[in-house]
């Protein structure tokens, strides 16, 4: 039995090529850990043991066959979990909701197909806030997921189980979705690298839709270099998602300049988080990166805009769940889904559409323009991912507005459709992880990866693991 | 401060096809009022000359040939696999216009 798995895909594949272990042994390792530890964390809803072993055997055959190249199988042997929003042919997909309790999809999403063709091995489907509605994982109809760094705390959400599956070593990487922060915020709470790509870069085909003008497919890894490798596989036009564009980003120059938005360091920011982010800035300054204070004046309007546009689109997307073609009927929706359907229907209803929905779309333009102005002068923006470290289970569960405000530093980038990368930046005194967020111009993920890799060469936060 | 009262909630629930209990109506009335009051903050911004932004890519009219893609076409049995209520290869739905028992699921 393998004792531990290397930190990066490159090292993992070196081990496979040297025959230190096989793909089947990697699956043994992760399944064993899931069986041993996940009952107290609740990160998985379905374990796909049979398909994991059959894919592992197939990949071992490729490895033993000799004549293959890693460019053909860039993710050879990489064990992956999928948030339970990704349709997986023949494997139950619930979206964390009782509505889809027994739904078995007849096809797989593009991203699932792409990862499996690249040699990755699916280990299972992870827990999440039902329909991806939440910032804590507590809105799952299958019980909350716990944070492995301290089980009294939430792991963040909505991609709660996805984050925990990687931080607890139940999976090498995890796929999630980020509509308003659902990859970046749990990455910050669990000491992982979390990417929300540019809107229009990764296909959403076959992924349960939440808010279609905002939804993106992101992923969790331990390192920035692996985040780049996963995006190289997931990105690109598939002809099934008509919002995809084939744009390429710019190369980063010799002299890197980063903007610090003053609005992200004001009232509401936890003091320990603030200190950690300021220290991260000092670390990068020593490497010769220039920093400049910038302003995103409409930041305080991002959450109100987001909580009009997002529920409006949610109410429309969830109208297809009528219990006829698949799933249970509408009585099976949990309370947060009902709340968002109600809110969305209200802001779209006669007499209120102009005052709320139209108004929000106009302010969205202003928020997006703020970023465009700033990126004329800087390569990236650096700010906290979330205003606080992980909060306690139950702390915000009865106050929806308080929970919505957890999205305060992530919602703007979603509205503007720009990429965001959360990177481990340190720990609070009581050892809760804190992430910093790099935001960039559309399709400029590579710049964020370059800066992030530089930071991870200078720090070891990402190598620390929770004691489960 | 009640912005969204019980009758508003009842009307929205009907539009959204949700059955709410009387407790739900009270809870949602208070929670939605609270959230809407917060959203009213948007009124502070002058937006008269601003074009609404409904999407971020700037793409329009993404079209392809209208031909079927065999490997991506579900068979009738796959398409029906998510329900137990089928009849002669069709989905069975509840009657929309209630004319009595004879119109219900055959």
From TrEMBL, chain A:
Q: Which GO terms describe its molecular function?
A: ATP binding; glutaminyl-tRNA synthase (glutamine-hydrolyzing) activity
What are the alphabetically sorted keywords of the record? ATP-binding, Ligase, Nucleotide-binding, Protein biosynthesis
The Amidase domain covers 25-448
- Show the catalytic activity: L-glutamyl-tRNA(Gln) + L-glutamine + ATP + H2O = L-glutaminyl-tRNA(Gln) + L-glutamate + ADP + phosphate + H(+)
Taxonomic lineage of the native organism: Bacteria, Candidatus Woeseibacteriota
> From what organism does this protein derive?
Candidatus Woesebacteria bacterium RIFOXYB1_FULL_38_16
Which protein, by its recorded name, is this?
Answer: Glutamyl-tRNA(Gln) amidotransferase subunit A
Gene name of the encoded protein: gatA
Q: What InterPro entries does the database record attribute to this sequence?
A: Amidase, Amidase_CS, Amidase_dom, AS_sf, GatA
One Pfam annotation reads Amidase
Q: What is its EC number?
A: 6.3.5.7
Q: What does this protein do?
A: Allows the formation of correctly charged Gln-tRNA(Gln) through the transamidation of misacylated Glu-tRNA(Gln) in organisms which lack glutaminyl-tRNA synthetase. The reaction takes place in the presence of glutamine and ATP through an activated gamma-phospho-Glu-tRNA(Gln).
HAMAP family in the cross-refs: GatA
TrEMBL record, chain B:
Which InterPro entries did the record assign?
Asp/Glu-ADT_sf_sub_c, GatC
A single GO molecular function term of this UniProt record: glutaminyl-tRNA synthase (glutamine-hydrolyzing) activity
Name the chemical reaction catalysed here. L-glutamyl-tRNA(Gln) + L-glutamine + ATP + H2O = L-glutaminyl-tRNA(Gln) + L-glutamate + ADP + phosphate + H(+); L-aspartyl-tRNA(Asn) + L-glutamine + ATP + H2O = L-asparaginyl-tRNA(Asn) + L-glutamate + ADP + phosphate + 2 H(+)
Entry keyword set: ATP-binding, Ligase, Nucleotide-binding, Protein biosynthesis
Q: Does the keyword Acyltransferase apply?
A: no
Q: Which GO terms describe its biological process?
A: glutaminyl-tRNAGln biosynthesis via transamidation; regulation of translational fidelity; translation
Q: Which residues form a coiled coil?
A: none
Q: Which domain of life is it from?
A: Bacteria
Q: What is its EC number?
A: 6.3.5.-
Stored PANTHER family: GLUTAMYL-TRNA(GLN) AMIDOTRANSFERASE SUBUNIT C, MITOCHONDRIAL (PTHR15004)
Give the similarity note: Belongs to the GatC family.
Listed under subunit, the entry gives: Heterotrimer of A, B and C subunits.
Summarizing the function annotation, the protein's role is:
Allows the formation of correctly charged Asn-tRNA(Asn) or Gln-tRNA(Gln) through the transamidation of misacylated Asp-tRNA(Asn) or Glu-tRNA(Gln) in organisms which lack either or both of asparaginyl-tRNA or glutaminyl-tRNA synthetases. The reaction takes place in the presence of glutamine and ATP through an activated phospho-Asp-tRNA(Asn) or phospho-Glu-tRNA(Gln).
Protein name (database record) = Aspartyl/glutamyl-tRNA(Asn/Gln) amidotransferase subunit C
Q: Which organism is it from?
A: Candidatus Woesebacteria bacterium RIFOXYB1_FULL_38_16
Give the encoding gene's name.
gatC
């Amino acid at each position: 039995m393998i004792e531990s798995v290397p930190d990066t895909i490159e090292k993992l594949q070196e081990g496979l090529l040297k025959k230190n272990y096989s793909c089947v042994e990697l699956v043994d390792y992760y399944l064993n850990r899931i069986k041993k530890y996940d009952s107290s964390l609740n990160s998985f809803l379905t374990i796909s043991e049979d398909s994991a072993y059959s894919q592992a055997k197939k990949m071992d055959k490729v490895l033993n066959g000799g004549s293959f190249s890693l460019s053909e199988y860039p993710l050879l042997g990489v064990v992956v979990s999928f948030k339970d929003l990704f349709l997986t042919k023949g494997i139950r997909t619930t979206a964390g909701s009782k509505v889809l309790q027994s739904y078995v999809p007849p096809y797989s999403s593009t991203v699932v197909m792409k990862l499996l063709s690249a040699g990755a091995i699916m280990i299972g489907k992870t827990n999440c806030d039902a329909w991806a509605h939440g910032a804590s994982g507590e809105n799952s109809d299958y019980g909350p997921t716990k944070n492995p760094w301290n089980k009294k705390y939430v792991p963040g959400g909505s991609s709660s189980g996805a984050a925990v599956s990687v931080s607890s070593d139940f999976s090498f990487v995890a796929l999630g979705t980020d509509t308003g922060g659902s990859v970046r915020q749990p990455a910050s709470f669990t000491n992982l690298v979390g990417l929300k790509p540019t809107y229009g870069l990764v296909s959403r085909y076959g992924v349960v839709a939440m808010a279609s003008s905002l939804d993106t497919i992101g992923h969790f890894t331990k390192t920035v270099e692996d985040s780049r490798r996963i995006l190289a596989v997931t990105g690109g036009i598939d002809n099934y998602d008509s919002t995809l564009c084939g744009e390429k980003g710019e190369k980063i120059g010799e002299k890197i300049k980063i903007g610090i938005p003053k609005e992200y360091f004001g009232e509401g920011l936890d003091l320990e988080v603030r200190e950690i982010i300021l220290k991260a800035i000092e670390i990068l300054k020593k490497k010769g990166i220039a920093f400049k204070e910038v302003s995103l004046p409409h930041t305080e309007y991002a959450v109100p805009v987001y909580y009009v546009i997002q529920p409006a689109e949610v109410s429309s997307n969830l109208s297809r769940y009528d219990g006829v073609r698949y799933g249970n009927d509408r009585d099976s929706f949990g309370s947060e889904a009902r709340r968002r359907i109600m809110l969305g229907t209200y802001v779209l209803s006669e007499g209120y559409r102009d005052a709320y929905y139209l108004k929000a779309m106009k302010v969205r333009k202003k928020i997006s323009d703020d970023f465009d102005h700033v990126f004329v002068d800087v390569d990236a923006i650096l700010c906290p991912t979330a205003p606080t470290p992980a909060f306690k289970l139950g702390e915000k569960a009865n106050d929806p507005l308080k929970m919505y405000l957890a999205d305060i530093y992530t919602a703007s980038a979603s509205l503007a459709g720009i990429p965001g990368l959360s990177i481990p930046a340190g720990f609070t005194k009581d050892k809760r992880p804190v992430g910093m967020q790099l935001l960039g111009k559309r399709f400029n993920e590579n710049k964020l990866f370059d800066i992030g890799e530089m930071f991870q060469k200078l720090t070891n936060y990402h190598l620390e693991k929770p004691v489960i | 401060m009640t912005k969204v009262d019980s009758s508003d909630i009842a009307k929205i629930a009907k539009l959204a096809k949700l059955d709410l209990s009387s407790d739900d109506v009270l809870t949602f009335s208070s929670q939605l009022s609270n959230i809407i009051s917060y959203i009213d903050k948007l009124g502070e911004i002058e937006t008269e000359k601003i074009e609404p932004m409904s999407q971020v890519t700037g793409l329009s009219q993404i079209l392809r040939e209208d031909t079927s893609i065999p490997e991506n076409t579900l068979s009738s049995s796959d398409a029906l696999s998510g329900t137990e209520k089928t009849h002669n290869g069709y989905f069975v739905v509840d009657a929309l216009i209630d004319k009595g028992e004879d119109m219900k699921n055959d």
